[in-house]
Write a structure and sequence with these properties.
The N terminus is likely disordered. The relative contact order is 0.17. This protein is 31% helix and 35% strand.
Length: 390
């Protein structure tokens, strides 16, 4: 019985020892793998320097270009209104077409006005005859009065009749000219060259002061381009000028280029001709107006475009490609090729964009080499293999 018990106990010990062997083997294998890993790994420096592309900072005077959303406006939009009352006989022009100065737009019924002209012409002839008679009477009376053949009263009456006849002739002439003027108003012409609007009244309508508006003509050349500056933008430009970061043109005149909705550049350059004397109470903006030649009528009133303002200069400006500027938790920064061709990080203060470049206001100096490509895996102190940017 003891032997059986001893044998059973020995069996249990062998079983426990057999269960421990897989654990021991696993620990040994793990240590062996870790040892192989340490033996085969290379230090970070053994991988070689990081390949980057860099540009050298060179300050220079750079043109300052500003863009704003703008809207076109006719430089002169004229309401075409009837100046006399009467029946509208015919619309002569084609709605929406371009017209020249002096081109006929509408015709009104001229017959009533022609009758007035004829009546006043007859009245003028009558008064002219009376004047001739009064002149002849005065010429006969004057020598007789000098010879005391007629009294002074007769001479005074003849003189008064003559002057009254003269005044009647002048009044009749004025009425005739007024009637002729009303007759001329029956032919309604465009006072300017431009583009016409829709006809407000149809043929056969009786025109009176209440419905005298017939159409509009908008001048297309020059055309106005209106854009606005916010209070913050204007203050920023003033601050930059005070700090020497922005210099206005010597003549004080800015060129205005117009970008069409498709992004193409309008061929004619304008100039700023008007600045609003006050801010808009509704928008808090300051309105500016540029006048641009538009001989082919490409720009139409109330069209949205972009106004590009040129003329100012940023002296000794530092520009680097936009892709070189990165942003972290503490703001914008760039990577530099530092001492010993090692990577260096530096914070910068950025200004506005210009094309694919970014103005840097603070943080960079002449001669600094800024990394523009090859940022993957870049860390402070990593050795660099630098290629100049094209």
């Amino acid at each position: 019985m003891r032997q059986l018990g001893t044998a059973g106990g020995g069996g249990r010990r062998r079983g426990a020892s057999g269960q421990q062997w897989p654990v021991v083997l696993a620990v040994v294998a793990a240590l062996a793998i870790a040892g192989c890993g340490r033996k085969g790994s290379a230090p970070p420096s053994a991988t070689g320097p990081a390949e980057v592309t860099a540009v050298t900072v060179t300050p220079r005077d750079a043109p300052a270009v500003f863009e704003f959303v703008a809207q076109t406006q006719s430089s002169r939009q004229v309401n075409i209104q009837a100046r006399v009352s009467g029946f509208l006989e015919k619309r002569v022009y084609t709605e929406g077409s371009a017209v020249k100065e002096g081109q006929v737009l509408f015709l009104m019924d001229q017959r009533p006005f022609q009758v007035q002209v004829d009546a006043h012409a007859a009245e003028l002839a009558k008064q002219q005859a009376s004047l001739d008679m009064a002149r002849a009477n005065l010429e006969r009376t004057k020598p007789l009065a000098e010879q005391d053949a007629l009294s002074q009263k007769d001479l005074d009456d003849a003189t008064g009749q003559f002057h009254a006849a003269e005044a009647a002739v002048e009044g009749a002439m004025a009425k005739l000219e007024s009637a002729k003027l009303d007759l001329s108003y029956c032919t309604i012409v465009s006072p300017v060259a431009g583009i016409t609007g829709a006809a407000e009244q149809q043929d056969g309508t009786y025109i009176s002061p209440q419905n005298s508006l017939l159409t509009t003509v908008a001048v297309l050349s020059p055309i106005w381009v209106n854009f606005s500056l916010s209070e913050n933008e204007l203050q920023r430009y003033r601050d930059e000028a005070a700090r020497g970061l922005l210099r206005a043109p010597a003549t004080g005149e800015y060129d205005v280029e117009v970008l069409l909705p498709d992004g193409s550049l309008f061929p004619h350059v304008g100039r700023i001709t008007f600045a609003s004397p006050s801010y808009s109470a509704q928008t808090g903006t300051f309105m500016l107006r540029a006048s641009v030649d538009n001989p082919d009528g490409v720009l139409r009133p109330n069209q949205y475009v972009r106004a590009r303002i040129k003329g100012a200069v940023r002296p000794n400006a530092i520009l680097i490609p936009q892709r070189a500027v990165q942003q972290g938790a503490e703001g914008h920064f760039v990577w530099l090729v530092g001492k010993g061709e090692a990577a260096e990080q530096r914070p910068v203060t950025v200004g506005p964009w210009q094309g694919d470049d970014w103005f840097i206001e603070e943080g960079l100096h002449a001669g600094d080499r800024v990394v523009v490509d090859g940022f993957v895996g870049l860390r402070v102190g990593v050795p660099l293999s630098v290629k100049p940017a094209v």
